[in-house]
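Hypothesis: this fold can be encoded by more than one sequence.
Test: take the structure tokens below, design a sequence, compare later.
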């Protein structure tokens, strides 16, 4: 993620055409702004991941009021060219991450392979009784204690997925402490001798993001998440993890490997 406004402002200013849209041409000002920014993105003057100047700076640069500018930015957002991230700014949208789902699926390896920097943090952890679905997936008795770990995962600082993971509590004691210290579920499981886990089952659905998902993934209202429910097991195919990952649907391209 490119966090400086300098490159974006220079692109808007210095491509050889006037910064301010022309009045009296019969073409709406907001449409001229859209076309200008579209051209800057298409021709590489605004790189994927670069942050646009603030609304105030853009309105001043284009010589329009904030209402006109916001209409232009809304059109560009609807076209999938830019994306506003609450608290961070508006960025030229990067292409979705190609995310293969295979026998061995590791978030950090996938994101690194796409040339982006993986990151993550522990959202919460707790011991809770296993519901019917979790007990069945982990081959436990309903009501048996399971350790739940919720993680937020990012690429270049952009939130990609929030995942809930459940483990047999007695088998994975202190796993949450290891996750908190390493920032990685895989490395934490490796410390317990369970790092070589394999995907046993994957189910994919989609639905509108709920309030917590919108907050954690920095999504506006109405956005969709892809929900990936998975069971991972050890070398003997004994389940060790049941997970429910919610991906920002427009930030990844899920690829199922046979």
């Amino acid at each position: 993620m490119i966090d400086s406004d300098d490159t974006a402002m220079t692109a808007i200013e210095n491509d050889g055409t006037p910064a301010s849209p022309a009045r009296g041409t019969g073409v709406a000002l907001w449409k001229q702004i859209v076309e200008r920014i579209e051209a800057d993105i298409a021709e590489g003057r605004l790189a994927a991941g670069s942050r646009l100047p603030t609304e105030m700076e853009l309105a001043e640069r284009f010589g329009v009021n904030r209402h006109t500018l916001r209409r232009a930015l809304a059109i560009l957002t609807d076209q999938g060219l830019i994306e506003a991230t609450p608290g961070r700014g508006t960025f030229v949208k990067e292409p979705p991450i190609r995310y293969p789902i295979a026998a061995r699926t590791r978030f950090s390896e996938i994101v690194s392979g796409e040339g982006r920097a993986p990151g993550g943090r522990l959202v919460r952890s707790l011991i809770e009784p296993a519901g019917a679905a979790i007990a069945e997936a982990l081959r436990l008795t309903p009501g048996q204690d399971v350790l739940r770990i919720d993680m937020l995962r990012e690429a270049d600082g952009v939130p990609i997925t929030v995942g809930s993971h459940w483990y047999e509590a007695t088998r994975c004691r202190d796993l949450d402490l290891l996750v908190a210290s390493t920032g990685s579920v895989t490395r934490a499981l490796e410390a317990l001798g369970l790092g070589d886990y394999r995907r046993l089952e994957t189910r994919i659905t989609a639905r509108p993001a709920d309030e917590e998902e919108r907050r954690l993934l920095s999504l506006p209202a109405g956005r969709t998440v892809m929900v990936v429910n998975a069971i991972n097991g050890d070398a003997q195919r004994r389940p060790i993890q049941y997970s429910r990952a919610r991906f920002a649907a427009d930030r990844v391209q899920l690829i199922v490997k046979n």
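The chain has two domains: 6-92, 97-256. Strands lie at 82-85, 89-92, 97-101, 118-129, 145-155, 158-168, 198-208, 224-233, 239-248, 252-256.
Hypothesis status: open.
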